[in-house]
Every structure is written in structure tokens, then in C-alpha cells.
Design goal:
Layout: H1 7-23, H2 25-36, H3 41-62
């Protein structure tokens, strides 16, 4: 259970984290590595949520848009 912090932000980032774990190769690999290391699924998903927030903050800070990989 996550206590404290900003509940509305946490609720807003939960679904994008689930989607990222399914469709983003880098975040999927990170999630699998955490699960393999013995972390519970909710803890691993929380780590992905944090990674998404860090990425969003960096993009906003630099004033750039993320472009998809076209490989």
C-alpha cells in the first residue's frame, strides 16, 4: 500500500504504467528485471510509474516532444 504523496497523480499514472509495461520495450525489460529480482508486481509497477514521471519531467524541462522509434 502506498501512503502519502499525491493520490490524484498516482491514480493518473497507474494506467499509463500498465500500458507502458505491455507495449514499451525498454520499460517492459525493466519491469521483467524487477520481477526476476524478486520484487512484487505492485512494487515493480510503482518503479515504472516513477520512471514515467521522471521521463515526463525531463521532456517538459527540455521543452521537447518525444518521438516514437521508427524501426
Amino acid at each position: 500500500m502506498i501512503r502519502g504523496g499525491r493520490a490524484q497523480l498516482r491514480q493518473s499514472v497507474y494506467m499509463p504504467a500498465l500500458v507502458a509495461v505491455r507495449f514499451n520495450a525498454d520499460l517492459k525489460d525493466k519491469y521483467r528485471a524487477l520481477i526476476t529480482a524478486g520484487k512484487p508486481a505492485k512494487v515493480a509497477l510503482t518503479a515504472i510509474m516513477r520512471k514515467l514521471l521522471i521521463l515526463a519531467n525531463a521532456l517538459l524541462r527540455d521543452g521537447r516532444m518525444r518521438t516514437p522509434n521508427l524501426t
